[in-house]
Amino acid sequence: MDVTVGDVQVQVGRSAPFTAAEHARASAMADLVGDVLRRAREDSGFAVSAGRRIGDGATPEYFTEGGSVSAVIEGIVVGIATVRAPDEHEPDVRPVTLRVDPTFQRRGIGTRLLVEGARLAHTLGAREIVLTTRSDNQAVLPMVLAAGMRGRIRMAADVLTVRVPVRDLKPQRT
Question: Core-most of 89, 100, 112, 124, by most CB within 10 Å?
Protein backbone atom coordinates (compact mmCIF):
# COMPACT_ATOMS: atom_id res chain seq x y z
CA MET A 1 0.00 0.00 0.00
CA ASP A 2 1.35 3.43 -0.93
CA VAL A 3 0.28 6.43 1.16
CA THR A 4 1.42 10.04 0.90
CA VAL A 5 2.02 11.74 4.27
CA GLY A 6 2.73 15.44 3.77
CA ASP A 7 5.24 15.35 0.93
CA VAL A 8 6.67 11.91 1.79
CA GLN A 9 5.62 8.71 0.05
CA VAL A 10 5.23 5.85 2.57
CA GLN A 11 5.03 2.21 1.54
CA VAL A 12 3.50 -0.40 3.82
CA GLY A 13 3.62 -4.06 2.92
CA ARG A 14 2.53 -7.43 4.23
CA SER A 15 1.84 -10.86 2.79
CA ALA A 16 -1.98 -10.58 2.93
CA PRO A 17 -3.58 -7.94 0.68
CA PHE A 18 -4.98 -4.82 2.33
CA THR A 19 -8.74 -4.46 2.42
CA ALA A 20 -10.62 -1.46 1.05
CA ALA A 21 -11.40 -0.38 4.63
CA GLU A 22 -7.70 -0.51 5.53
CA HIS A 23 -6.83 1.57 2.46
CA ALA A 24 -9.48 4.13 3.42
CA ARG A 25 -8.26 4.30 7.04
CA ALA A 26 -4.64 4.68 5.95
CA SER A 27 -5.57 7.44 3.53
CA ALA A 28 -7.60 9.28 6.19
CA MET A 29 -4.77 8.98 8.72
CA ALA A 30 -2.22 10.21 6.15
CA ASP A 31 -4.43 13.20 5.35
CA LEU A 32 -4.77 14.01 9.05
CA VAL A 33 -1.01 13.81 9.66
CA GLY A 34 -0.37 15.86 6.51
CA ASP A 35 -2.76 18.57 7.75
CA VAL A 36 -1.06 18.68 11.17
CA LEU A 37 2.39 18.94 9.57
CA ARG A 38 1.23 21.65 7.16
CA ARG A 39 -0.29 23.71 10.00
CA ALA A 40 2.85 23.30 12.09
CA ARG A 41 4.96 24.59 9.18
CA GLU A 42 2.68 27.58 8.70
CA ASP A 43 2.71 28.40 12.43
CA SER A 44 6.50 28.17 12.81
CA GLY A 45 7.67 31.51 11.46
CA PHE A 46 11.41 31.92 11.08
CA ALA A 47 12.78 33.37 14.32
CA VAL A 48 15.46 36.04 14.22
CA SER A 49 17.75 36.37 17.21
CA ALA A 50 18.01 39.71 18.97
CA GLY A 51 21.53 40.23 17.65
CA ARG A 52 22.70 39.95 14.08
CA ARG A 53 21.11 37.32 11.89
CA ILE A 54 23.74 34.65 11.30
CA GLY A 55 23.88 31.94 8.71
CA ASP A 56 21.24 33.44 6.45
CA GLY A 57 21.31 30.88 3.65
CA ALA A 58 24.69 29.50 4.78
CA THR A 59 25.45 25.81 4.50
CA PRO A 60 26.59 24.31 7.80
CA GLU A 61 29.82 22.42 8.22
CA TYR A 62 29.62 19.14 10.15
CA PHE A 63 32.26 18.02 12.61
CA THR A 64 32.56 14.77 14.55
CA GLU A 65 34.28 14.78 17.89
CA GLY A 66 34.06 11.87 20.30
CA GLY A 67 30.45 10.72 20.42
CA SER A 68 28.93 13.85 18.89
CA VAL A 69 28.35 15.41 15.49
CA SER A 70 27.97 19.20 15.38
CA ALA A 71 26.51 21.49 12.72
CA VAL A 72 28.42 24.77 12.68
CA ILE A 73 27.61 28.01 10.84
CA GLU A 74 30.03 30.94 11.05
CA GLY A 75 31.77 29.34 14.03
CA ILE A 76 28.53 28.88 16.00
CA VAL A 77 27.13 25.43 16.83
CA VAL A 78 23.53 25.41 15.57
CA GLY A 79 22.83 21.71 16.06
CA ILE A 80 24.26 18.61 17.66
CA ALA A 81 23.65 14.87 17.60
CA THR A 82 25.02 12.96 20.56
CA VAL A 83 25.44 9.18 20.48
CA ARG A 84 25.12 8.03 24.07
CA ALA A 85 26.51 4.92 25.72
CA PRO A 86 24.46 1.75 25.32
CA ASP A 87 22.24 0.34 28.04
CA GLU A 88 23.78 -2.75 29.68
CA HIS A 89 20.74 -4.81 28.60
CA GLU A 90 21.14 -3.82 24.92
CA PRO A 91 24.86 -3.33 24.22
CA ASP A 92 24.37 -2.98 20.45
CA VAL A 93 21.69 -0.25 20.70
CA ARG A 94 22.76 3.38 21.08
CA PRO A 95 20.43 6.20 22.16
CA VAL A 96 20.86 9.34 20.06
CA THR A 97 19.81 12.83 21.12
CA LEU A 98 19.35 15.61 18.57
CA ARG A 99 19.11 19.32 19.16
CA VAL A 100 18.84 22.06 16.54
CA ASP A 101 18.60 25.73 17.48
CA PRO A 102 15.00 26.81 16.73
CA THR A 103 16.30 29.58 14.46
CA PHE A 104 17.90 26.95 12.21
CA GLN A 105 15.14 24.34 12.16
CA ARG A 106 13.41 23.28 8.93
CA ARG A 107 16.65 23.59 6.92
CA GLY A 108 17.62 19.91 6.81
CA ILE A 109 20.19 20.26 9.59
CA GLY A 110 18.42 17.78 11.89
CA THR A 111 18.10 15.28 9.06
CA ARG A 112 21.81 15.48 8.26
CA LEU A 113 22.69 15.24 11.97
CA LEU A 114 20.48 12.16 12.26
CA VAL A 115 22.26 10.47 9.35
CA GLU A 116 25.74 11.39 10.60
CA GLY A 117 24.82 10.41 14.18
CA ALA A 118 23.50 7.05 12.95
CA ARG A 119 26.70 6.46 10.96
CA LEU A 120 28.75 7.36 14.04
CA ALA A 121 26.70 4.93 16.15
CA HIS A 122 27.38 2.21 13.56
CA THR A 123 31.10 3.03 13.71
CA LEU A 124 30.89 2.64 17.50
CA GLY A 125 29.43 -0.87 17.10
CA ALA A 126 25.70 -0.18 17.22
CA ARG A 127 23.22 -2.33 15.35
CA GLU A 128 20.38 0.09 16.09
CA ILE A 129 19.80 3.63 17.34
CA VAL A 130 16.93 4.81 19.52
CA LEU A 131 15.33 8.26 19.38
CA THR A 132 13.04 9.17 22.28
CA THR A 133 10.92 12.30 22.38
CA ARG A 134 7.54 13.67 23.44
CA SER A 135 4.61 12.19 21.54
CA ASP A 136 3.63 15.67 20.32
CA ASN A 137 6.99 16.26 18.62
CA GLN A 138 5.85 16.68 15.02
CA ALA A 139 9.36 16.88 13.57
CA VAL A 140 10.84 13.49 14.40
CA LEU A 141 8.91 11.20 12.05
CA PRO A 142 9.26 13.41 8.93
CA MET A 143 12.96 13.82 9.79
CA VAL A 144 13.51 10.04 9.98
CA LEU A 145 11.64 9.54 6.70
CA ALA A 146 13.52 12.41 5.01
CA ALA A 147 16.79 10.76 6.06
CA GLY A 148 15.70 7.68 4.10
CA MET A 149 15.54 5.61 7.26
CA ARG A 150 12.86 3.23 8.39
CA GLY A 151 12.26 2.35 12.00
CA ARG A 152 9.91 0.78 14.48
CA ILE A 153 7.71 3.39 16.10
CA ARG A 154 6.21 3.00 19.54
CA MET A 155 4.00 5.49 21.34
CA ALA A 156 3.26 4.95 25.01
CA ALA A 157 1.49 7.64 27.02
CA ASP A 158 3.32 10.85 26.09
CA VAL A 159 6.58 9.23 24.86
CA LEU A 160 7.41 8.46 21.23
CA THR A 161 10.25 5.99 20.62
CA VAL A 162 11.75 5.28 17.21
CA ARG A 163 14.23 2.41 16.78
CA VAL A 164 16.23 2.60 13.56
CA PRO A 165 18.58 -0.13 12.29
CA VAL A 166 22.01 1.23 11.32
CA ARG A 167 23.87 -1.95 10.37
CA ASP A 168 23.46 -1.22 6.62
CA LEU A 169 24.84 2.34 6.85
CA LYS A 170 28.39 3.15 5.86
CA PRO A 171 30.45 3.78 9.01
CA GLN A 172 31.94 7.23 9.49
CA ARG A 173 35.54 7.65 8.51
CA THR A 174 37.67 8.16 11.58
Answer: 100
Q: In the 8-state DSSP scheme, what is residue 139?
A: S
Quick: pLDDT tens for 22-81: 988 888 888 877 777 666 555 544 333 333 444 566 788 899 999 999 999 888 888 999
Calpha distance 88→143 (Å, rounded):
28
- How far is 25 from 80, CA to CA, in rounded Å? 37
Helix or strand (DSSP H, E) at 55: none
Residues 6+ apart with CB under 8 A from 74: 54, 55, 58
* Strand, helix or coil for residue 18: coil
Helix and strand totals (H; E) in the chain: 3, 9
Whether the per-residue pLDDT at 102 is higher than 90: the answer is no
Cα–chain-centroid distance for residue 66?
21
Nearest to 98 by CA among 86, 80, 84: 80
